[in-house]
């Protein structure tokens, strides 16, 4: 399916790599839920490729930090393009981290690649597929590639505007002469700046050369942006097919609205505002419930549905753990049925995800497995619960957690997880407890008035039980991983490694 590299002459084995390029945001405003939807959906796809199918994805993303909208915004705000774009680029990256999107291996800014873009355009001109006009613009010559233009998307007409010096109205700009007051770069055609499409062809080629496996972006980018990228890149590399797979995500709309959520339409909800009401896990669940290619309606109702699905899974995991510990008494579990359902689910999930990443089918199979698990774990008010089957219940929990973890949804807040997560609160509580104990101990240890300063001080006999209680508390807490050390009249405390390990183990920095 993807680029295969044979390595190591002695032991010939195949490593599977996938070169992925994605069109990044144009950074002149806040990132919104439309961006979140596109980048989270592709993040889920990348996790599936990596973790389920064992394909290492090398992902590069461009940041569009120069274009007409950026220039307009800078004029409106009287701010320099560098300041404006760095501010929103930074915010975009932080938002992506909050949504737990695995960052690309490299982000590349257009403004730092203009020299590459100029060289790229020169080569396209040399290859006979572009021309410069007397105005100082450079256009792609669509007629030079015959009927290849439009093969990607079909017979859509380009709406390119620009100089009347164009050979064909469909020809699109590779280089635009700069207008007065606009940012510019020197080039063989005079002062100007790159067109939009050429930035992606150049940046992708500068990282991956002449072959790309996956190119991703929202469906609005399919035409003319990706059609034009293909024309330019194949004209530059003089190849028959530059990219193997274009993946386009459907648009996020506010429910009831026809137009997509977008910066320019000012109909957006920022990622930060969204995260005040919902979690990154809930947004992922919302994304999983539709195919990445489909449009998606955002509403309170659809978010509540995502939240409820997550809660169902979470409740099951908690019940399952209580059952495994013997705290939940149920009728005998139908073990064979659960093993069968588990195997069935594994096959369905694998097949669904191999079929153009059908996440709603896979998620529905997982929720169905949760349903069967829950049916078996109905609490019994009477009975001994002697016949127990913790292993199969544990197998269900492990598989369900593993799959959601693969999708980027954190380990559910089961009771075990909560104990680990509450580490910080625990520290504050232990600190208060240890201080209180210290005061009591200090009080109990204070010598009787008039007792000799030489030799062992004489304690008040009625305070000795307090001292004993302090010792008992210390001895009881030690096996729980809380070690109090009495040092003379004062004390110190620490949490042992056994207690501290949890949160570190839980951190997921891998792909
Ligand atoms: N509502 C949306 N739904 C899904 N994907 C979106 C949405 N809006 C933008 N994207 C995708 O996010 C990526 C970055 O887009 P871009 O920065 O151009 O966003 P935008 O808000 O549409 O901006 P503009 O209004 O300036 O066109 C693109 O792949 C784009 O297709
Ligand atoms: Zn692009």
From TrEMBL:
Cofactor(s) it depends on: Zn(2+)
Keyword vocabulary terms for this entry: Aminoacyl-tRNA synthetase, ATP-binding, Ligase, Metal-binding, Mitochondrion, Nucleotide-binding, Protein biosynthesis, Zinc
Gene Ontology molecular function: ATP binding; cysteine-tRNA ligase activity; metal ion binding
SUPFAM superfamilies xref list: Anticodon-binding domain of a subclass of class I aminoacyl-tRNA synthetases, Nucleotidylyl transferase
Cellular component per GO, a single term: mitochondrion
Main location: mitochondrion
Enzyme Commission number(s): 6.1.1.16
Domain called Cysteinyl-tRNA synthetase class Ia DALR: residue spans: 349-409
The keyword Magnesium is assigned to this record: no
Location in the cell: Mitochondrion
Function in brief: In addition to its role as an aminoacyl-tRNA synthetase, has also cysteine persulfide synthase activity. Produces reactive persulfide species such as cysteine persulfide (CysSSH) from substrate cysteine and mediate direct incorporation of CysSSH into proteins during translations, resulting in protein persulfides and polysulfides. CysSSHs behave as potent antioxidants and cellular protectants.
Recorded family membership: Belongs to the class-I aminoacyl-tRNA synthetase family.
Name listed for the protein in its UniProt record: Probable cysteine--tRNA ligase, mitochondrial
Species this chain originates from: Periophthalmus magnuspinnatus
